[in-house]
Amino acid sequence: MPRPLPNELGERLESAAVLDAPAKAVGKAVRSAVPAGPVKDALSGTWLGHALHPLLTDVTIGTWMSAVLLDLVGGRASEPAAERLIALGLASAPATIATGWTEWADTEVASDAVRRSGIVHAAANGAALAAFAGSLVARRRGDTGRGKLLGLAGAGLMSAGGWLGSHLAYTRGVGVDNTVFESGPRDWTPAGVREADLAEGRPHCVRVEDTPVLLLRQGGLVHALANRCTHRGGALHEGEVGDGTITCPLHGSRFRLEDGFIERGPATARQPVLEARVRDGAVEVRRPD
Length: 289
Hints:
- Helix 6 (112-140) packs antiparallel against helix 7 (144-170).
- 47% of the residues lie in helices and 17% in strands.
- The protein is built from seven helices and ten strands.
- It is of the alpha+beta class.
- A six-stranded antiparallel β-sheet has the order 1-10-9-4-3-2, with no helix packed on it. A four-stranded antiparallel β-sheet has the order 5-6-7-8, with no helix packed on it.
């Protein structure tokens, strides 16, 4: 069976190294403009429990697509409603764009494919925004026919951008919990290290079955967490240790050692915690029941 044409086009796009220079410049600018802190947490969706961007895209895409459908089947009576829907989509676009840039900028540094797909995704959606803005202007000037044609053009551009957005999420894993398939062992399993080898307050990484595990002895307790940060897969054992916390070295997400609770984003999912015990001097771990 032949491969779907969109997949072929996506792979060609992801091999276009010419996109790297402008994309890297944009990514760096976004990261500088939105450093770790409350604003980044808000845009990332830390308070929501998952990425905020997909939720906002439903608003923007939904209003614009509804307007185009009204243009196609609603008749003259639906023209005022279509105009209002386009205006609502334009009003929602800045927040949608800001959250999308933030999501992409945290990932593009580690992946050529994400960098290249993401910048074209943004360009396609930016062109769609311009088309719908032009459509609204034309309608308010009384040129409804031109407004409808620009709406159709915007819908086409938006569809292309939407496909790339889905590709980034479902094929490249942008925005997903990076530990979702790392559950850890069900039964008590040796971690391959003795308690005496764990220096107080110094993180240590081991692999238990197929799961990288962070071990950290602090305050007389041995803590065990998934070592890959839920946000973008950063190696937590390379991060900064605080009083009962560990901070990811990539984007500054800070988790409690006790329960993986997020004390600071941009992570949106708690860090998985494993149970740990010491038996005959050796550390063993298992996932909680």
